[in-house]
């Protein structure tokens, strides 16, 4: 058999740029990771206890529909448990949506600096991704609607958006939905919902209840359970039925289900996490926003800092890394070469970042 003959992936797969995660410090170092928007307060103690309680049941398959978790989500968020689908992180659910609702010849629309997973899952499904320009790093509803064609099947909307931290108000999300055909699915990705403090924001749960072509996707990764990989969504009965036909039969492990259910009910910890984030997100924005650096207003658990040019951004990244503070370069994944994304961490980490960047400005 010739060595030149081998399995060939589907057309377009090799054109996909793989997802680039945030960097970590070297193994064994004391570097502080501020590159992946993880919880600065760890996980809920109740979630940790629940996770550990699963150790005596590791030989048993978990219940296939994640009923334990769906019940907790239903109780706390006031949504019908039958309209919830859980997954191995929200990425798992986004992949499922693309697999089920996109195909060859279809198009999906997103804002230019939206989450970098959307182009990957769109192209993997054989569809074309359409990038739409933003206004001040914020999704432009009019531009998104103008980009819709007869081929459009999905509109991806991260709200708040990663990596910019900007958001679209409830009124604007509803205006976007009102301008879409009934056969176009609006995917509202609320990975950072727990951190939003804007009064005109809404997670979209009410809109999901009113319309058959809206799905709300959320995650536990940003609130202390990144290692457990737990995501969830709320959609119409029809969409839930479609996804349940395709998802893996045991796609959420038992320790993760138990931990996420406990985290859901631990609203006190969630409130403490939000308060810590709001305090230090606002503080770092006030301290860094200047003639030399611009901090884009954020509703996430991170800020995007813009420097005069790519060279200054690279110098800032390298200097922070040398001091043991690892932030996220966003040029390679998003094309924002003059920007860095900085996760909100401990008070010590935030003061360290600000001190280093201010000193760097003074000598550059």
TrEMBL record:
The modification N6-(pyridoxal phosphate)lysine is found at residue 222. It comes from Devosia litorisediminis. The lineage of its organism: Bacteria, Pseudomonadati, Pseudomonadota, Alphaproteobacteria, Hyphomicrobiales. It is an enzyme of class 2 (transferase). It comes from the Bacteria. Coiled coil: none annotated. Homodimer. Belongs to the class-II pyridoxal-phosphate-dependent aminotransferase family. Histidinol-phosphate aminotransferase subfamily. InterPro entries: Aminotransferase_I/II_large (IPR004839), HisP_aminotrans (IPR005861), HistidinolP_aminotransfase (IPR050106), PyrdxlP-dep_Trfase (IPR015424), PyrdxlP-dep_Trfase_major (IPR015421), PyrdxlP-dep_Trfase_small (IPR015422). It holds the Pfam family Aminotran_1_2. GO terms for biological process: L-histidine biosynthetic process. Keywords: Amino-acid biosynthesis, Aminotransferase, Histidine biosynthesis, Pyridoxal phosphate, Transferase. Residues 31-353 form the Aminotransferase class I/classII large domain. The keyword Transferase applies. This is Histidinol-phosphate aminotransferase.
